[in-house]
Amino acid sequence: MFQIGKTIVSEEILENDFVCNLNACKGACCVGGEYGAPLEDSETDKLVNIYQDVKPYLRPEGIKAIEEQGAFVKGEDGEWETPLVNNNECAYVVFSEDGIAKCGLEAAYENGVTKWKKPISCHLYPVRTREYSEFTAVNYHKWEICDPACELGKELKVPIYKFVKDALIRKFGKAWYSELEEVAKGNPK
Fold it and tell me: Which superkingdom is the protein from (predicted)?
């Protein structure tokens, strides 16, 4: 672990490789698991405010789940998260013709309909953050469904922190990321 500003960062994000391999996993992280995507407090209002704009990009099952449960829900851990369809996939998930799970929020963003890409937790994945009173923990979340991403990352020699560069900058800023790069230079695998 090392510290950058008010963050405590796991060296695992420097030492492990990762590149999403959607052809192998089919976007399983958006479908598997027992919980929706974690949301920051500030993201809950965004979901409510953009819902009508995003709605045309969603599946009927997702729309039904959102309209019954709300644009976001409180999880068992007391934290905000996206609602699920049948306690399975995220309500904001859409599927491509070849069965790959994608994000309806991101599709709306990419088409210029909204200015918000998707929850930062999704953008950062496989990095997970946790807020504490004095600092934010920045960790690597290992999940077996991402084994193909680890293999592809290793093949392409892309460490996690480079794979999620844009998301880390979105969350912590360019100066923070520059400092992370400096740490990485002194931390060869």
Answer: Bacteria
